[in-house]
Amino acid sequence: MSTTSTTQTLHNNASIERPRSGTWDGGNEPFKASYGKLMMWFFLLSDAFTFAAFLTTYGLMRHRHLAFTGDHKDFVFSTAYWPIPDKVFNSFPGLHGMDLPLAFVALMTMILIFSSVTMVLAVEAGHRMDKADVQKWLLWTLLFGATFVSCQAWEWSHFIGGTEEGTKMLDGTIFHGANLQMNQYGPVLFADLFFFITGFHGTHVFSGLVLLTWAFIATTNGTFEKRGHYEMVEKIGLYWHFVDLVWVFVFTFFYLV
Amino acid sequence: MAHHATDHTQPTGEIPRPVTGWIWKTFFVLVGVTALEFLVTFVMDPSTFRNSILIVLTIFKAFFIVAEFMHLKHETKGLIWSILVPMALLIWLMVALITEGSAIGEAIYNAFK
């Protein structure tokens, strides 16, 4: 305020004590949102572009390869065409050898939706300045988030390890599982895109967990209570919901279509 | 701002009761639509029509997450549009590059014929 009043003095002595309030002189908030919240929104917008680039690449590569045209039950893994997702992701921890198409990814989706709900509940508790409730819901969100990342770790290790049968490659050898150069499920890029898209999403969930842990500690220490508002929880909440939002799209474009 | 009508500048230590009805309503919408997506995936044979249904359902789910959970529906018009308008570019990107993918595929398969 002190610096602005000096510059203002040069122009208008009468307005020296008056705060700026005009539309174009920085005196108001056109979006009625704080700087931090706005920047979180625009960061998320840029992040949406990153994920959209990934999913668009998936679409491009999928259309660049042939699709499997035969009957669903006759499907076998081959590098000649793009695999059917529910033939690749059909295993469940502890239920070895059973064909459970997309069952595990359904569970992961439910866990992430639950974590989103507990996150909104934490934000809602923050609006009411209810410290105990914020702590409780942040812990639940952390629990669901950590469970999701663990599920993803299992899914990755199963994808990398592959099935017992494996797939006969062009040189006549049997290959099990996947890496960035070879995989038993289909074209090389199928596994590459799996690693990059779910990996990038998993990294986002992990960053969210770090932020949530920090927010939980700050809430416990009474940092937000002293500040008079829980806006930080709200901003982390925006990020967390965005991660859920990305999963909604990854789920459809990678696992369903 | 409609959801937290409760004033958060309480003068004393009195904590208002939580209002969570809208949260659970959104939750059931999300779970319901996800279940519907699974049903569509397994009941229908793969086709452009099936994929269109799945994409519409996905956007429906995304709308609920962004509007309710991320609270965008209750922000100012300016903020809503500055987030939504750039998304139009993504639709263009997707359509353009998927078409490109089909063209590349055709070129490659015809080259080795």
TrEMBL record, chain A:
One of its GO terms (molecular function) is cytochrome-c oxidase activity. Pfam families: COX3 (PF00510). It comes from the Bacteria. The chain crosses the membrane at residues 38-61, 102-125, 137-156, 193-217, 238-256. Coiled coil: none annotated. Residues 20-257 form the Heme-copper oxidase subunit III family profile domain. One of its GO terms (biological process) is aerobic electron transport chain. One of its GO terms (cellular component) is plasma membrane. It is found in: Cell membrane. It is a multi-pass membrane protein. Residues 1-15 have a biased composition (Polar residues). Residues 1-25 are annotated as: Disordered. Keywords: Cell membrane, Membrane, Transmembrane, Transmembrane helix. Belongs to the cytochrome c oxidase subunit 3 family. This is Cytochrome oxidase subunit III. It comes from Hymenobacter metallicola.
TrEMBL record, chain B:
The keyword Transmembrane applies. InterPro entries: Cyt_c_oxidase_su4_prok. The chain crosses the membrane at residues 22-40, 52-72, 78-98. Its main location: membrane. It is a multi-pass membrane protein. One of its GO terms (cellular component) is plasma membrane. It holds the Pfam family COX4_pro. It comes from the Bacteria. Keywords: Cell membrane, Membrane, Transmembrane, Transmembrane helix. It is found in: Cell membrane. The keyword Membrane applies. This is Cytochrome C oxidase subunit IV. It comes from Hymenobacter metallicola.
